[in-house]
Design brief:
By secondary structure, the protein is α/β, with parallel strands linked by helices. Helices cover 35% and strands 24% of the residues. The protein is globular. The structure holds adenosine-5'-triphosphate (ATP) and magnesium ion (MG).
Length: 330
């Protein structure tokens, strides 16, 4: 691994919920997360809906402020808390850390033509010197994301574009400022299956060209496996990272019982391997509420192997067989 570009240190995010009529309650959407992403690395973040993936992505982009802990960004030979960055350093971080969101319809202003979505960031960050140069760069970007000839797209409004085309424009806009780090949050989940691989390959090509690092958020293990092959996967459950390591190692031999159950939904083409894979029988299918998560290991109410310690003590993420696992069984 190269030097980490961005470090997440003991980060938690608490949201207040309800409270209009009843007592105010709180949920810990992200609970004491530690991770690092190096230059040009991919970390796929996998977990069920509501486990805190988008919240973690937004925290890493400083779109949300942590309730505790810090997000550190490597800038001018030092790690600095992104919330302490000022002036030129903050601008540099903002430029270098970009989001590709899930819903391409929500990203683009419906009243603005494609060209007006692409040129402002180029001018704002002085990547283009003037409007003419910005337009030329916008054309190159559209070609790069597979929208050609670009002139055909410049004058169109978002409503005249398909979901796949819109997502390509969202990608073009995110990469236009040459970011070092991209959070791709379910970037392909709203697209047709036939388009997904194309967009995933586009994102992988961009990484080759620009040496970008990705936090690649998905609820789909098969997509994570494809996108993060030869890289790393982190599995999240109710705000915690429960397992993190090399993609193939986790897929061939998941250690955390939760990873095992998630993987049960991924088809394995190799019948020998498929037979070898033991699937745990869950004690309960119900995902506990984040308002009152079970004490100890949050997975204990569903885990088939839970022992008394699992109800008492929160397991720490520890190194087991060359990866990190948060489970008392190891
Ligand atoms: N601004 C907010 N205010 C209150 N609660 C929030 C807020 N944002 C997220 N949450 C809650 O935090 C939890 C985690 O949400 P988050 O969107 O991070 O999950 P996710 O893993 O991205 O889910 P999905 O796969 O559905 O996108 C959820 O219970 C969600 O309702
Ligand atoms: Mg999400």
């Amino acid at each position: 691994m190269t030097i980490p570009l961005i470090r997440v240190e003991e980060v938690s995010k608490i949201f207040p919920v309800g409270g209009v009529f009843g007592a105010k309650k709180y949920i810990k959407a992200v609970d004491n997360v530690n991770l690092e992403i190096g230059e040009n690395e991919i970390l796929a973040l996998v977990g069920e809906s509501g486990c805190g993936k988008s919240t973690l992505g937004k925290l890493m982009l400083a779109l949300l402020k942590p309730s505790s802990g810090s997000i550190l960004y490597y800038i001018n030979h030092k790690y600095k808390d992104v919330w302490s960055l000022k002036g030129e350093e903050f601008r540099e971080y903002r430029r270098n850390a970009q989001l590709i969101p899930q819903d391409p319809y929500s990203t683009l202003n419906p009243m603005k033509k494609v060209i007006s979505a692409l040129t402002p960031p180029l001018l704002r960050y002085k990547i283009a010197r003037n409007r003419r140069e910005a337009k030329k760069m916008a054309a190159e970007l559209l070609e790069m994301v597979g929208l050609s000839p670009p002139e055909d797209f410049f004058e169109r409004f978002p409503c005249r574009l398909s979901g796949g085309q819109l997502q390509r424009i969202a990608i073009a806009r995110a990469i236009s400022v040459k970011p070092k780090f991209i959070v791709a949050d379910e970037a392909v989940s709203m697209l047709d299956a036939s388009l997904r691989i194309e967009i995933l390959n586009l994102l992988l090509n961009i990484r080759k060209r620009l040496k970008t690092a990705y936090l690649f958020i998905t609820h789909d293990f098969a997509i994570a496996r494809y996108f993060a092959r030869n890289e790393r996967i982190a599995v999240m459950y109710l705000g915690n990272i429960v397992e993190m390591g090399r993609t193939e190692e986790i897929i061939q031999n998941p250690l955390h019982p939760y990873t095992q159950t998630l993987l049960a939904t991924v088809p394995i083409p190799d019948p020998k391997l498929a037979r070898k894979r033991e699937l745990p029988k869950l004690r309960s299918l119900e995902i506990p509420s984040l308002i009152s998560p079970p004490p100890g290991c949050k997975f204990n109410t569903r885990c088939p192997y839970a022992e008394s310690i699992c109800e008492e003590k929160t397991p720490e993420l520890r190194e087991v067989k060359g990866r990190l696992v948060a489970c008392h069984l190891f």
